[in-house]
Amino acid sequence: MDKVMSHKGIIALYVLPSLLLILAIIYFPILLTGYYGLMKWDGVSSMSFIGLENYAALMKDGAFWNSVYHSFLFALLSTLSLAVYMLVALVLAGNIKGAGLLRKIYLIPMLLSSVAIAQLWLKIYHPTNGILNSFLVSIGVEDPPAWLSDPKLVLAALFIPILWQYAGFYILIYYAALKNIPASLVEAARIDGANPWQIALGIKLPLISEVVKVTIVLAVVGSLKYFDLIYVMTDGGPNGSSEVMASYMYHKAFRGFDFGYGSAIGFFLLIICMVATWGIRKATASKDTIQYS
Amino acid sequence: MKRKTFSASMLLLALTLVLVACGGGSKSNTDGTNSTASGDEGSKASSGEKVTIKMMHLWPDGSNSAQNKLVKQIIGEYEQANPNVKIDTEVLENEQYKNKIKVLSASNSLPDVGFTWAAGFLEPYVKGNMFAPLDDLLQGDLKDKFVSGTTEAYAVDGKTYALPVELNIVPVYYNKEIFAKYNLKTPQTYEEFKNIIKTLNDNKVTPIALGSKDAWTGSFWYMYLADRIGGPDVQDQAVASNTFSDPNLIQAAKEAQELVKSNAFVKGFNGLSNDEAKSEFMNEKAAMYAMGTWEVPNYTTNPDIPQEFKDKIGFFKFPAYDGGKGNINDWVGGVGVGLFVSENSKVKEDAKKFVSFFVKRWGELSVTDAGIIPGTKVDTSSVKLPQMFIDVLNELNNANKVILYLDVQMKPVASEEHHNLIQALLGNAVTPEEFAKKQEDVLKAGK
Fold this sequence. Notes:
B: alpha/beta, D-Maltodextrin-Binding Protein, domain 2, 5-stranded mixed sheet
């Protein structure tokens, strides 16, 4: 085996198929999207080159910046909600009774497709027949809000299913990381008289800080390009009040037949995601990794 | 041991390469058939060759069972008469269909036969050389079969690119039982209409089911107001001249917002889809519902819906507006979907023959079997129809004008913005003046 892996030619040969696939399916289309962004193209007839006009229009497009704002709001909220997930994971990893069962329960939303989740929450939020409003009426609320059609409430109403949808995923990641912490460290701290809070904040969190950084990047980038649930539940509406970058791109390209503009939005979205990732890495970089052994 | 792993991995690699080579080979094979196919002019089925025609339609068994069955029946008949032809169908629900057809056209792989919408939707496909002109059919096989003025909606630069199978108008359906319970009569004037809404609200009945998350349904109400206030030509002219500043159009927007303020529509309508709104009406929780005549089968022939409910449903014309220029016999409506043949189809001639057969047979069967008013002329004396259909057909005969849906008239970007603006207008997020201004801006942009 060593002999095979030390032969550079063979390594290259083995890497080649997946490299070609990645190039053809991911990197090449990215470049192509950037290229289409320079075109005036309705997606059907032939395109014509218009330079940076689409990008210039994008910079001045109020509706687009509105969707950027919504996307970043989602990113911020998702990042903050990581703290909640962490809290749950800390409790679960603390060897409480039924932790295994609870972990599975938290994971179930992960197994559902976004569309199924969206349909489920559409029923919950239904302004007259939904269980949420039925409940509100039953406890005496006179005129419960129409969650998905009120521009002021729609973002909050959309965020709750998203929070719920990803809970299992992050809790599972944190749980696994916490379980990896050597029991001897926790034991030693306990003997020294540290309470559970001190153990969590002083020992457990620093030890899994690398994992936390990764989840922050995942949460931010995931929110910035979030699409499916919003598409099914509100379609960006009413009147763009729940529009995010990805849904705006979709509307411009597929509803408005403006694939050039849509591509420009897509490429811009990519750049925003890259900058966000880079920024987070930079902001959370620490000089040396923490070790307690 | 090392040697063994080495040879094992080399074997694996060799097998992979073989697989890759096979893949390449089959690809060049298909390329080969392509080139022969494009060289072959005319019908292949008549020369005895086996032909498969791919067809996409938008009537899934669940939601549009009558149309679905009829399509299957016509295909069955055609396949029986032409044993060399096989027709493969792919069925998608309306919105998904729209999206898929765009994706397919972008990758140049449209089905041989499919459905398209008129005017604004069709134009980019024609400009992109995706649809085949069907004028030879209209001059030959299908001469004088269509209701005059229907195929024009699919014409670009004098050529017709699709053949209509549906003609629809938008009546306001109402629940007779609810109306009778509160002693209400179908409205003749807008004042009466507003009184009905007030009475229903006083009795805690939702007056109108509307699901304007699918904003085109909200557009119906705006269009009727604009017509009744500003007359039959005001909207056509607005789109044609790219202006939206006619005071009548702004007045209509004001009236639409007044309707919302009077709680005319179901709660949370901007967040409900059309299907959700429809179920409010079908479950008799709302008294009225404005929708195209494609819904009439649900109130007449559809066997899945209880007769008891069907008997309760009637329709009325949108009432006249006091002092307005509109005619009560103006209808919002237009041709629905039409059949196209793909320009790049390898079996174009066979596809055209099939389309011609389909349209003729559809015209004979669609009203009686599926309850669809076809684009072709219907001889009402020879067919037995439910009363509501005869009423609708009679209304069509007496129609002063059928105003083509605003969103269909507009170009794609303007149409999309129209949808947003309708949501904003009904959601009270813009003033009527802003609504008109923004609509004009996007019309002027010409996209």
